Each structure stands twice: as C-alpha cells, then as structure tokens.
Amino acid sequence: MVDNPHSQLQAKPACTRKLRRALADLVSPRQTRSEPGEPLASRAPRILCVDDNPANLLLVQTLLEGMGAKVTAADSGYAAIDAVKAHDFDLVLMDVQMPGMDGRETTEVLRQWESERHCTPLPIVALTAHAMANEKRALLQSGMDDYLTKPISERQLAQVVLKWTGLALRNQASENSHEPTRHTTQLLVLDHDEGLRLAAGKADLAIDMLAMLLASLEADRDAIRQAREARDNNALIERVHRLHGATRYCGVPQLRAACQRSETLLKQASPNAVAALDELDQAITRLAKEARSTA
C-alpha cells in the first residue's frame, strides 16, 4: 500500500520518463537521498554545478551562493560523477558540451548508477548556450529533467531550483524583461551596461567574466582556425560552441551574435557557414582591439 497516494499523481499530459519512474516506484519504492527528519523548507538547497568553462562556472556559482544555495563546482563529467557518489545533492545543473564526457553521457552514467542502487533519481537540468529542437529532445531522452538556455538570470535559477527541489532561494534581483533589442548591424562590440546586467548587477563579477573571456580569446581564435583548416566539422562546432557559451555572460553583443549564427549554420551544414565563420573571426579582432583601446 502506498503511504501517500497523492504523491503519485501525475499532471496531464504525463512525461513518459516520469510516468515510468512513478510506476516503478509503486512496484519497488526507491531509497531517498534526503536525511531523515530534515525539514525541507528550512535549509539551503545543495546544488552541483558542472561546466568545463571556468568563467561560466564562476558566474552560476556566484549567483546561486548569493541567493543562499550551497554550491559544489565540478569542471568535468568525471568530477560530477565522483561528487554525486560522494555527497547528497538536491539538484544538478549540467553543462551539455564538455570534452571527454559530455553532459548527456554523464547523465546516462548517473541514471544507471541510481538504477542499480534503487535510489530516487536526482533532478538534472541541462545548461546550454545553443540547442536546436532535436537537440533539446535528445537532452530529455538522455535522462535529463529540464534545460535552461544561457545566459541564465538569478530569477531563472531560483525558479528552476524551486521547481525541482521545492526549496526557495532568496533575494532574487529584479529582472528587466524589456531590454532594448538592436538590429545585428547596430550591435555594440563591447557593452559594459549589458555585462553588468548579465552579472546580476555585480560589478566585480562582470569585470572578472570579461577578463576571463579576453584572456582566452586568442587561443579560441587559433583553435577555430585550426579546425577550419583541418576541415574537422565536429571540432569546429565544439570550439565555436565553447566560445559562444563564454560570450553569453559578457557584454559582447557582436561576438555573441557571430557565434550564434556560426554555430547554427554549422549544425545545419549550411554553405553560408563559411561566411559566418569569417565574420566571427572579424568579430574577435574587433573585440580584442576595442578591449585594448578601453583598457
């Protein structure tokens, strides 16, 4: 007999994976990860953030900790698996494209481990700078529960934490949903106001994020050029995606737009990708020049 039959109710339309999980729990109740007797609403959520990009990891960790979460950072899929096996978490925020073991592969390993131990599946939310419709479906099919598109605001983080853990974060900054939109030709090379907004109004964090992007910019350009010369499309998509992810949290509108267009066209195998990559290279040059002139 089920202790609390209402806990097994599913909203319509039911998610297939969640429905299978609920049915399995009815037949064979799983072990819970939470400490017994711990009041859920009286503690800070324990969140594992996984991202191979140190700038992105720094920003998400800073925002979450600023709202009261207890955050553990992992810079690879392998480190994430070790962390989940060693500690209890309420939620995992998982970057999708990582070298070695990507977010989907990491999630599949964790789901297998959970299944073998008959424990409650840990909510895993994908973080991605760029995902097409078919890629979003693949994320959910791999075992992830949800996804967020970068850049991610404090409000979005608080909402996804509450949705999947039932724990509320505090002091979310007000969010301006009416930010001005500019045509591509009007995008700024360097927009400090946007950088400050993306860093949730934290000036020191905005400065750090831009500095980390600029420090790796030349290496990113070289890696993209080498992948182009080698005609290695997979490596090219990976390198452009990595740079695209870094631009999502910095006030660099031109470069971000060039990354997004290049990544989209590369994934579509469009002949226009060549011109887009040329524009991306020029956008990197403009940003480096602008940064030097304002330093």
Characterization of this structure:
With 295 residues, the protein is of the alpha/beta class. The chain folds into two domains: 151 residues, 3-Layer(aba) Sandwich (Rossmann fold); 111 residues, Four Helix Bundle (Hemerythrin (Met), subunit A) (Up-down Bundle), CATH 1.20.120. It is 53% helix and 8% strand. The protein has a five-stranded parallel β-sheet, with helices on both faces. Helix 5 links the parallel strand 4 and strand 5. Helix 7 packs across helix 8. The radius of gyration is 21 Å and the shape is globular. Its EC number is 2.7.13.3. This is Multi-sensor hybrid histidine kinase. Its main location: membrane. It comes from Pseudomonas fragi.
Number of E-type strands: 5
Tell me the structural class.
alpha/beta
Count helical runs: 11
User: What characterizes the major β-sheet?
Assistant: 5 strands, parallel
How many angstroms separate the termini? 68 Å
Characterize the quaternary organization of these chains.
Answer: single chain
Portion in strands: 5-15%
Mean pLDDT: 83
Q: Strands of the largest sheet, in order across it?
A: 2-1-3-4-5
User: Which stretches of 5+ consecutive residues score pLDDT under 50?
Assistant: 1-17, 34-39, 176-185
> How do the SSEs run, as a string of H and E?
HEHEHEHEHEHHHHHH
Globally, the shape reads globular
CATH class of the largest domain: Alpha Beta
Label the CATH architecture of the largest domain. Answer: 3-Layer(aba) Sandwich
CATH superfamily of the largest domain: Response regulator
Radius of gyration over all CA atoms, rounded = 21 Å
- Helical content stands at 40-55%
State the CATH topology of the largest domain. Answer: Rossmann fold
- Whole-number count of domains: 2
